[in-house]
Amino acid sequence: MREYVPSSFDTNALAAKTRALNVLVIGAGLGGLTTAIALRRAGHNVTVFEKSRLASEFGAAINVPPNANGILLHLGIDATAAGAVEFKWFTEYSKTGDYVRVNDFAQRSRGWQHKYLLAHRVDLHTQLKDTATSSKGLGPPVELKTASEVVDVDINNGTITLKDGSNTQGDLVVAADGIHSRCRSKLTDQRPNPSGHLAYRFMIKKADALAIPELVDVVEKTGELVFWFDVDRRIVMYPTRNDSILNFVCIHPDQGTVGLDDTWNGQGNREDLIKTYEGFDPRALRLLGMVDESTLKVWRLMDMGPIEKWYAERFCLVGDAAHPFLPHQGQGGAQAMEDGVSLGTLLPRGTDPSEVPARLKLYQRCRKERAEFVQEVTRQSGKNIEPGQKNNIAKVMKFFDYNCGHDEYHHSLNELRKYQFKEQAKVYWRMPISFGPYPGPRQDAQGHIRETSHSNFITRSIRFKTSRTLLQNFLPTTAYTFLSGDTIAEASYIQTTLDNMDWLGGRGYNYFGFYMHGIQYKKKDGETVVGNYLAVMWEDLTDPILSGREEVGFPKLFADIAVEHTASTYSMQASWRGAGFLKLELNDLVACEACPPTSEDQVFTYKYVPSTGNPGFADAEYPICVPTPSAKEIKSFLQTSKCNISTNAHDWKALPTLHHIVSRLSELPVYEVVKGTVSEGTGVDSLASAYRIE
């Protein structure tokens, strides 16, 4: 059996701090039990209230199309283990038995993730009930209370009242009480009305039909669904329970049968059944005549238009209570299951009770449009055929892809993600955006701000005097200038090793950058800002390169960075694929007192995003400033004047992506070393304070 691997999103960061929801489900049919299992698997406490004693379930078959089978597999249920048969053939006859067409449905089904099955309703119901109440599986077992009729619901505070007068309150009440839902009246006055058709239903043993030679050709195929059509009535036959039973649904006009109620269990009459299909294929009539009259049931097909709202503060409808289905496309049970798995997905463990109303609104947004569309398509495909027109099989098949090519678990999970992303007011998005906000140094996967005060750093720097007239050529626009007109200016190579970074799983990396000191930026309004300009930075890990370039606008590149550090010496070698291009050395380091940062220590850079398909043009370009970070905890500070800077630009073959940069840096003379420093401590700036200057 194929099961879904639970998504990492199924449990969120609040799960450990938030109690499970207490959910009350009214009705233990297919929709109610599916809902209960889905919510149980989400970790919630679920109680199901069923007015009957569940002594028996309807003795009929049910379609389990791919969209429903996928849900069952997600819930850990393999319907084939209980005898469900794969739907393999779709054969159509005219009223009188003329062969019309056959479709190889097994071939068609290969394009769907899950098989189309034909199950016995009793068997499927038993599987759902056992899965819900079993001590095995995810989440606490569902408590199933039979002979517990709910007579009233307070939809705003989540309280139900039983027939015996007792009350139970939960965080959510789910009404799965079927087509004649009592709970629906809390939201609407609409009620189901007769559709104009009745349906006989019954089962016979396939072996009995195979024993009659004239019937062999219409019943022998495994997994074959057979239709006989007339303009206003039809016979549908398909196998179930390990291909041992043939299920019949015989739909015909409602002539106002006296004494027939609107339930599934009206008693049918064999003579009336045969008379209703007088003139049909003799083989079909022979099959109808094999029914045990005591098991022949007839029910009035009821229909109801869309209702405006499926939910209230702590209450919602699922299944036929929300959207009753006619049987023409075999989607009634499937849509109820989709409702149930949607609720279980939209209310993962960690959902606070205060969030329930908003999640119910999201539930309706996920489910209402689809369910009502399938409902309308079903309605249209079941209409009578006008004289001279073809039957409605083409309509049925046209919408099979829409009906079956859907996975509500996947759909609702994606809608929950989008909802939660939207709820997070300020989160970082960067490519690939298909997977949501990107975790990084400034936020976690849920968009929460990272704590970096405990992260460790060792920063080494060499500050030196060089040519201002060369340095100024690195400035990207004329808005940047040196504060001093002197032709000697100062620059630094600053290298840092980070460790204990939460966003990297407690690990770290190395980076270094080239900074120009004493720079001012003049805004368009004439105001000036003073800081240091970062011309280029190299890092030895891809993740911070991507986050820094896209989120902050830092000019980051990749290099292998090897660091050696003793008590009094330091050296760094930067290389690309074995070609060393920069070496920094500090010797005779001695301890001294660190200088506190000043407002002039803020960093400038320039963000540039090239325009796709338009070389030489930018989609965005603007100046960036990172304010002076808050004070770090410096544990040690060393200083020296004995420093060395060595560069090697190589050629384009050795440094095919860096030669143009390193060759320019190699042009810079070192007139004098100002100082070399090494500082070690805790507290790392996440650069979350970076902003666009204008």
From TrEMBL:
| Highest rank taxon of the organism | Eukaryota
GO function terms (MF aspect): FAD binding; lyase activity; monooxygenase activity
- Residue stretches spanning the membrane: 20-39
Q: Domain FAD-binding: where?
A: 22-374
Record key words, sorted: FAD, Flavoprotein, Membrane, Monooxygenase, Oxidoreductase, Transmembrane, Transmembrane helix
Belongs to which family? Belongs to the paxM FAD-dependent monooxygenase family.
UniProt-recorded name of the protein: FAD-binding domain-containing protein
